[in-house]
Amino acid sequence: MSWAGAIAATQIAVQSSTDPYGLRAIDARRRDMGVSLEALLAAARISARTWDYLRAGRTRPQPRTLIKLSRALDRLATGEPTAPPPPMVAAFWRAAVLFLCAELGADAQIALAPDEGSSRPMDPAWMKAARARQLAFYLTHVELQVSLTALAEACRTSKQRVHKAARTVEDLRDDPSIDALLTRAAAAVTGKDP
Questions:
Q1: A Gene Ontology molecular-function term (predicted)?
Q2: pLDDT, tens only, 67-120
Q3: DSSP, residue by residue, the chain
């Protein structure tokens, strides 16, 4: 290895040991873009306290936290809108549930009622409503590009329920009738042509 190569390798090692998770690089990019720290944290949905803990080395960042910060900077750089606020997410989900209930012949009251994790597989009305609810969770996640965790918080349900719904619908997407139903629902709720 040449001297120049050894010096470059040493600089990289020193840089990565002083900023092992890339937080300083994210902060430098933020400053270069002229974005306030508050704007970045709001766009990434990360609290100032979390940021302070990360910068002070009190906690190690989760990969998803670094991804959220990086994606927020990308959105701020391109002018792309940030994630919708929770009331908007909940309203979109409710509209999707209502449309899907109408399409599936399900009872919207059952679908929108908090069910506290109950399961009634022997009740056909409950099963139709549950299917509408699952499809609406998936549709909201995909159309609004909101995380499943944020979706669960906005809809005041468990993360497990939303994650299970997303997995279930992903498995159902092979069925052309489900795919067509989701396309119609997306067009109806977003107002966009399919």
A1: sequence-specific DNA binding
A2: 888 888 888 888 876 666 688 899 999 999 999 999 999 999 999 887 656 678
A3: --HHHHHHHHHHHHHHHHSTTSHHHHHHHHHHHT--HHHHHHHHT--HHHHHHHHHTSSPPPHHHHHHHHHHHHHHHHT---PPPHHHHHHHHHHHHHHHHHHHT--HHHHHS--TT---TT-HHHHHHHHHHHHHHHHHHHHHT--HHHHHHHTTS-HHHHHHHHHHHHHHTTSHHHHHHHHHHHHHHH----
Render pLDDT for 132-152 as a digit per residue (tens, 0 to 9): 999 999 999 988 888 888 898
> Which residues, at least 6 apart from 182, have a Cβ–Cβ distance to it below 8 Å?
135, 138, 139, 169, 173
Q: Residue 175 has which token pair?
A: 């069925």
